[in-house]
Design brief:
single chain, 323 residues, alpha+beta, Arc Repressor Mutant, subunit A, Beta-Lactamase, 2 domains, eight-stranded antiparallel β-sheet, two-stranded antiparallel ribbon, 10 helices, 10 strands, 37% helix, globular, disordered N terminus
Length: 323
């Protein structure tokens, strides 16, 4: 996610301007702090997770003094307390709760960047991960112009219907595309699926019985660890929070049968922010299998032609929407 920082430079009365020597310490302190930022954030996020100093120290492989020092440095830099301590029990303050999600994102993105798992192509995110057992995941964000130039009309019509409905799931404008969507809600337990359209890719891949059994359950985690899971969640949070849209091309290995054998699958995914009837936030995902995926760095020989039984067929649109 791109973030733009705007710096405002108000006029300063002459009697408030200090001599250069008086600002030396203020300039050096952030510079010294920034060199430790990664470790400080690790200490903060780990202590926030465990709320127990001994457990945090053990998980970090650090010392009590170091963790306390990191928290103190962060609190001094941010100008607010991140924790309260009563009877050796740590609790996040309001400021700590507000700071935690961004700290977790920074840590995940930093680790992904160091491991060369994340980069950008034309300003849009490219993310990948792999394990020694052969499992891999590739995801590249694309411009929405790909939708206008694609041969399938399903994504174009879904985007049009979403706009006409104002994001309202129950709008009549959504009726003809809703069977192809997966609908998500974010809860304290994470993202849960609340609806699988009968024509959605999930149903075609896993079967209706598994889809029905998965309603209301939190999403199962792919291999790759906590940082990978957080990177996968980032687009979901971005789209829901901004009530906007995002298009990604994905290649990965997913089990289809009960024996857990991994099978390659490539698809385009359009995510849209929306609303449930009570006004609470929703997220809609349209997943369309396709061999026409573009992911920089992925061996094109791995891309498979989707089998007929998992293809999404959309024949309900007037011919004027066909290319």
């Amino acid at each position: 996610m791109l973030r733009y920082w705007m710096i405002y430079l108000p006029s300063i009365p002459m009697n408030q301007i200090v001599a250069p020597s008086e600002t030396t310490q203020a300039v050096k302190k952030p510079a010294e702090t920034h060199g430790l930022l990664h470790e400080m954030i690790r200490s903060f996020t780990t202590l926030a997770k465990t709320l127990n100093l001994s457990h945090a120290v053990k998980e970090l492989g650090s010392t009590r003094q170091t963790v306390r020092r990191h928290i103190t440095q962060l609190e001094e830099a941010k100008g607010a307390a991140l924790f309260t301590v009563e009877d050796r029990q740590y609790r996040l303050t309001e400021e700590g709760e507000r700071a935690l999600p961004e700290a977790q994102d920074l840590l995940a993105r930093g680790n992904a960047w160091l491991n060369s798992n994340v980069s950008h192509v034309h300003g849009l995110q490219l993310f990948s991960a792999s394990l020694p057992n052969g499992w891999c995941f590739w995801q590249q964000q694309h411009s929405l112009s790909r939708i206008w130039n694609a041969p399938s009309c399903l994504m174009r019509e879904t985007l049009r219907s979403w706009a006409m409905a104002g994001g309202d799931l129950e709008s009549p404008c959504m009726e003809h595309v809703r069977p192809y969507l997966i609908v998500y809600r974010h809860t304290i337990a994470g993202w849960i699926c609340v609806e699988f359209g009968e024509e959605s890719f999930f149903v075609k891949w896993f079967g209706w019985a598994k889809a029905r059994s998965s309603v209301g359950r939190s999403l199962g985690r792919m291999p790759g660890g906590d940082d990978f899971a957080r990177m996968l969640d980032e687009p979901f949070h971005e789209v829901q929070t901004t009530q906007s849209m995002r298009l990604d091309h994905v290649f990965t290995l997913v089990p289809r049968e009960s024996d857990g054998t991994l099978q390659p699958v490539n698809y385009q995914r359009l995510m849209l922010g929306g609303r449930f009837p009570d006004g609470s936030l929703a997220l809609y995902a349209l997943v369309e299998p396709s061999a026409d995926v573009e992911i920089v760095g992925l061996d094109h020989g791995k891309i498979v032609q989707p089998s007929p039984e998992i293809m999404v067929h959309f024949n309900q649109i007037n011919a004027k929407y066909e290319r």
